[in-house]
Amino acid sequence: MSAPSFEVPPPGGGFPDTWRRVITDPRGFFAEMPLAGGLTDPVVFVAICAAVNGVGRLLITWSLWSLVVSLVGLVVAAFVAATVLTLVAQQLFDGKAGFEPTFRVVAYAAAPAVFFWIPRLAVIAWIWGLYLQIRGVERVHDLEPARAVLAIAVSAAVTWLLAAGLAGALI
Predict the structure, then answer these.
(1) Which residue from 40, 94, 129, 143 puts its CA 20 to 30 A from 135's CA?
(2) Which residues constitute the domain of residue 84?
């Protein structure tokens, strides 16, 4: 019996199908997600999610700045979050994966970001994004669910502290 095949869609070309699969079948998606293959596809995926969010914010605020901040902010946040999560998972929870698989999880777990511009739905989307990260971290770092939740919680706290520290340093 052969292993299930997972074809990464061309950058941007398979976005709707990939997005739907991440949102509706996270366990299946992350089980079949390749752990390597470069960062292009996940970066394009998170950038499209950020662009959709940015266009929504533009429609509400009529500020081109909100579009730019949404687009750049989410992509940069994905890199920072993946870096911190990789270190936390490896150092504190004996995670098995490196940066690339962790970045893939963070990037694809950003799928709900397309709803961040909708006020009441944003909270639900954010919570679903955390759930997606937990499912992905379980798979790529080979952690039990409780340890994956702790890894996400600790990395979120560290990332928040870093952001708060940088914001304070810039004032």
Answers:
(1) 40
(2) 15-170
Task: Check: pTM over 0.90? Answer yes or no.
Answer: no
Q: Give the DSSP per-residue string, 15-42.
A: HHHHHHHHHH-HHHHHHHS-S-S-SHHH
Element (H, E) at 52: helix 40-61
- How many separate domains does the chain show? 1
Within its chain, how far is the Cα of 167 from the centroid?
A: 22
Q: In this structure, are residues 101 and 36 in contact, taking their beta carbons and an 8 Å threshold? A: yes
Residue 6 resides in a domain: no
Burial class (CB in 10 A: 0-12, 13-18, 19+), 143: buried
